[in-house]
Design goal:
The protein is mainly alpha-helical. It has helices spanning about 10-35, 40-55, 55-75, 80-105, 110-135, 140-150, 160-175, 185-200. It has one domain (about 10-200). The chain contains 8 helices and no strands.
């Protein structure tokens, strides 16, 4: 009689890391929205478009992620997995819910609290993206864009510049659709790629 395979702790730990990373991204998105200093470039674009067309932010983000997912399927489907589906389904709604909780608990918030929220948001989003990318269980469509582009150019070291480029496109689109832009949006656009590169070089969360 064939014995059942033992529980794979390595896979389970990767699943937990992927979920934790996705939670950090959603919560970080809520923190920067709570700060009132704008939002991350991708959320700013999606918030602007969703308000213009009159549908819920999480729903629009899910639709737009689906469009990028189709592109991923034909260009590099190896980036599609558990993390892809969970992130594109949950991050927008998690951000909405977290913002509701933060507002209910903290109210409008003093200036020092808003500044702290901005800084915490930047760290949470960058660490969250790195954690779930290095879990290697799939990448969210938008995060996969810059990674796939840099790999297709055979210049993986250009990832931070590709990320900067996609973020700037989001900022311009958010401006056109009157999305919530601010100093936080600029900081996220300029420093997300480089900060992610530094975190990944530290190899804090990479799985073997």
């Amino acid at each position: 009689m064939k014995l059942q395979k033992p529980f794979n702790r390595a896979v389970f730990s990767r699943i937990l890391l992927s979920i934790f990373g996705i939670f950090l991204i959603g919560f970080g998105g809520a923190l920067i929205r709570y700060s009132g200093f704008g939002t991350d470039p991708y959320s700013g674009m999606n918030l602007g478009v969703s308000q213009t067309v009159g549908i819920m932010y999480g729903t629009w983000q899910f639709i737009f992620n689906g469009i990028i997912l189709v592109w991923m399927f034909f260009v590099d489907r190896t980036k599609i997995g558990f993390g892809t589906l969970i992130s594109m389904s949950c991050i927008g709604y998690l951000s909405d819910f977290s913002l509701f909780v933060l507002t209910a608990l903290l109210g409008e918030g003093a200036l020092y609290l808003r500044i702290f929220s901005l800084l915490a948001a930047i760290l949470a989003v960058c660490f969250g993206i790195v954690i779930y990318i290095d879990a290697k269980l799939g990448i969210a469509p938008y995060d996969a864009l810059s990674l796939i582009i840099s790999e297709k150019l055979k210049k993986p070291q250009w990832f931070k510049w590709c990320r900067l480029g996609t973020d700037l496109v989001c900022v311009i689109t958010a401006f056109i659709f009157h999305g919530p832009l601010g100093i936080g949006t600029v900081i996220m656009a300029l420093f997300t790629g480089p900060l992610m590169t530094l975190i990944r070089k530290a190899r804090l969360f990479q799985q073997n």
